Amino acid sequence: MDLFTHAMYERMKTEAPLAARMRPRTLDEFVGQEAILGPGKLLRRAIETDRLFSSIILWGPPGSGKTTLAMVIANQTRSHFATLSAVLAGKAELKEVIDAAIERRRLYGQRTILFVDEVHRWNKAQQDALLPHVENGTVTFIGATTENPYFEVIGALVSRSRVFQLRPLEDDDVRRILENALRDPERGYGKRRVAITEEAIEHLINVAGGDARNALNALELAVESTPPDADGVIKITLEVAQESIQRRAVLYDKDGDAHYDTISAFIKSVRGSDPDAALYWLAKMLYAGEDPRFILRRLIILAGEDIGLADPLGLVVASAAAQAFDYVGLPEGIYPIVEATLYLATAPKSNSAGSYFKAFKVIERQGIIAVPQHLQDPSRDASALGHGEGYQYPHESPDHFLPQQYLPSPLLGTYFYNPSDQGYEAQVRERLAHWRAAQQKALGISRQEILADLPESEIREIKGKHKLSG
Predict the structure, then answer these.
(1) Can you give the pLDDT at residue 382?
(2) How far apart are CA 417 and CA 441, in angstroms?
(3) Residues 399 and 457 reside in one and the same domain
(4) Is residue 451 part of a domain?
(5) 3-class secondary structure, 87
(6) Per-residue pLDDT tens for 38-76?
(7) What's the CA gap between 311 and 422, in Å, rounded?
(8) Alpha carbon 170 to chain centroid distance?
(9) Are residues 224 and 121 in the same domain?
(10) Do 175 and 216 belong together in one domain?
(11) In whole angstroms, what is the distance from residue 322 CA to residue 291 CA?
(12) 6 falls in which pLDDT band (50, 70, 90)?
């Protein structure tokens, strides 16, 4: 490195953003994540003794300390520490690192630790290229990801790694980080006269949402944009803090865990008849910029799946809300979304539409049984083959019902649909019991079996078998 390059790096150390300057260098400086780094914890012992027991994956939200922890390991280890960003590097850069690691091990017996930031951004082929070198010990792998590694990292790589989940920092942790930045004379603002009010620091902590980087960036903006007063003091008031971090950063990647976790919480709140929780999760999604049409599609599905015949208007309301939103758009289109959410959350619930999957399972198990002759279409082969012969038209009865056979004979007495006693469906239950009793008497049905509801996992599997045919 020449003198000019060295001087440039030295300037960068002082000119870097506050969050970069204050990055912890040792475990003692690291704040938070006591569950995995507290005294005596496995990962802490491994780092302190420079004996990483296996490759590891650090999974957590932005600002929780994943990259910082990797840098602490880099400062602690006697192994060569190489870094790659999955956003910028590909297979070619990985090959260079691997080739160098092999040569280093051959010539000097030195191990290599490879840190891959945002590893979920690598596609399967890129992750596959890393796998054999992790398997044979060429490198010890440390991956950092904001996404669930069990979905975003190939299974073979996950199975060869220990996954550590980092949580958003506690408010007390964020306070310690801010106070350290204000006191540190070398990397922070310890040499400058900064006075921050309690209300201001509380605001920074609250709005940062457990993200240390977010909090430090806001503090830096507040300090650097506020001129000192006549006494040379930079005063950070609540008003200054509010200007520096005006909007809480909501963790919400539309392709990531937060997206699916939040819509899951929303749907479960509506299903669970908690309108207040439903409104909260709805507000989080719209605040984070979620597509309202995605939310409306999920409400339409819920209306059929979880409200059903307990309130048939649920599906009408959800569909009308979707149509109304298409007409109106944002911001006024929020009203039909909210109306549909509140209607469905407070409606009586029934999942009896899931009865269909019982019938699908029976067909899978027994095969398709021929349609009884009297139910066959008479418009084509009635005269030659007797299709439709013996069918009784229900509307010719005063009650508009006739107790005749509709299921194939082997299935007579098998009941897929078991109406709930909720809302409108309670009337259906009473009416259907009368019809079934009349059918049993007229057809001499002695065997009766109400099929049990299928578990949700089995219903999901059957749903996956439904495809539009070309």
Answers:
(1) 60
(2) 19
(3) yes
(4) yes
(5) coil
(6) 898 988 998 888 888 788 999 988 888 898 898 888 888
(7) 8
(8) 21
(9) no
(10) yes
(11) 12
(12) very low
More confident residue, 10 or 127: 127
Please enumerate in sequence order all residues whose Cβ is within 8 A of that of 11, keeping only pairs 6 or more positions apart, or say none.
none
- On whether the CB atoms of residues 421 and 348 are closer than 8 A, the answer is no
Tell me the two tokens of residue 266. 């929303």
Identify the domain containing residue 234 by its residue range. Answer: 171-244
- The residue assigned the tokens 């912890």 is 24
- Amino acid, single-letter form, for residue 145: T
- Tens of pLDDT, residues 78-126: 889 899 999 888 889 999 999 999 999 889 888 888 999 999 999 899 8
- 331 preceded by a cis bond (ω within 30 of 0): yes
Q: What is the DSSP code (8-state) at residue 451? A: P
Assigned domain for 398 exists: yes
SS3 label, residue 144: strand
Q: Are residues 47 and 148 in the same domain?
A: yes
Of residues 188, 185, 218, the one with CA closest to residue 200: 218
Number of domains in the chain: 4
Rounded CA-CA distance 101/428 in Å is 72
304: exposed, middle or buried (Cβ count in 10 Å: 0-12, 13-18, 19+): middle
The count of other CB atoms within 10 Å of the CB of residue 433 is: 11
The lowest-confidence range among 7-11, 203-207, 426-430, 437-441 is 7-11
Cβ–Cβ < 8 Å for 211, 249: yes
Q: Are 290 and 252 in contact (CB under 8 A)?
A: yes
Per-residue pLDDT at 247 exceeds 70: no
CA distances to 8, 186, 301, 350, 418 from 273, rounded to whole Å, are 61, 55, 16, 12, 22
What percentage of the chain carries pLDDT values higher than 90?
Answer: 49
Tell me: do 176 and 229 sit in the same domain. yes
Query: Is residue 124 one of the residues assigned to a domain?
Result: yes
Same domain, residue pair 84 and 142: yes
Tally of CB atoms within 10 A around 313: 14
Beta bridge mates, 236: 196
Query: Per DSSP, which regions of 146-245 are E strands?
Result: 161-165, 194-196, 234-236
pTM over 0.85: no
What is the mean predicted confidence (pLDDT) over 394-401? 90
SS3 helix, strand, coil % of the chain, rounded to 5?
A: 55, 10, 35
Cα-Cα end-to-end distance for the chain? 64
Q: Are residues 364 and 433 in the same domain?
A: yes
| Helical segments of 347-405, H only | 355-366, 378-385
